[in-house]
Amino acid sequence: MASRKPTQVVPSSALEDAVREQLIGWGLVDSAEGASALDLARRLDAGDVRASAAAMLHGQLRALLSDLRKLAPPADSDDAVDELAAQREQRRRAAGMP
Length: 98
Hints:
- It is a single chain.
- Helix content is 64%, strand content 0%.
- The protein has four helices and no strands.
- Helix 2 packs antiparallel against helix 3 (51-71).
- The relative contact order is 0.16.
């Protein structure tokens, strides 16, 4: 029996983190579609994708996120200030700020 190589953990980047945060907010991070979106983000973040392939992957990711947005339950936020604070926090995390 052939031995398997240990799986290498690849650090996440800004796009993957932003997609993950969005999926968490929608409650869809553990869905198959959510996993697909994260896979697309990881492939784009790898940096070894040709421009034409990157354009195709971006289009697929955009379409998938649009579909996932429709599946997300409506936000329960009654307070506009809380919603703005959550959006600000998401932008800070996406920018790598603590």
